[in-house]
Amino acid sequence: SAYRLVLGSEDEATLESLLLRYINMPESAACVVALRFSNVLHPPHHLPSRYRCILCLGSSNQEVVDEAKAGLKGAKILPEFQDAVSYIQARTLEREKSPELCYTVGTQRLPYTPDVYSEVLQFLNQCIQVHIPETILTDKERFIFTANMLANQDKKEKSTDCDSALIP
Fold this sequence. Notes:
Blueprint: H1 10-23, H2 28-41, H3 47-56, H4 62-72, H5 81-96, E1 103-105, E2 108-110, H6 114-131, H7 139-158
Antiparallel strand pairs: 1-2
């Protein structure tokens, strides 16, 4: 390939930041190009690329949604569940600091639209299914487990007292 990305390098961080900025632009063409580039460049288990696809599934532009679906479709190798939860939680905290990226309901600001929240849960469920045998958890148990992991991760991020981060 003409482009070689060195993992953990400053160039990688710059590229990831640039792609995320284009994903959040209102121009759908910029978003589609950034998604397509990201989907071609990175393997299916690359968390930042999958996260960008998840964000774009909430777009009102069908071309953007189609490209996002293409990036998520058919991935047989997914990230580890805990890595995915940690990554998404970190990005969620970043989005909460940027009002222009948030979705507002009444006076409440949310980091994602309800559609994107749903896609996040589905993605995390897929990560669990790949890494935990089917016989261990039912769909309902897997959903509850995912929701509890997200809530637990959120409490850990916001708390300095380890005991208060546990879910009763």
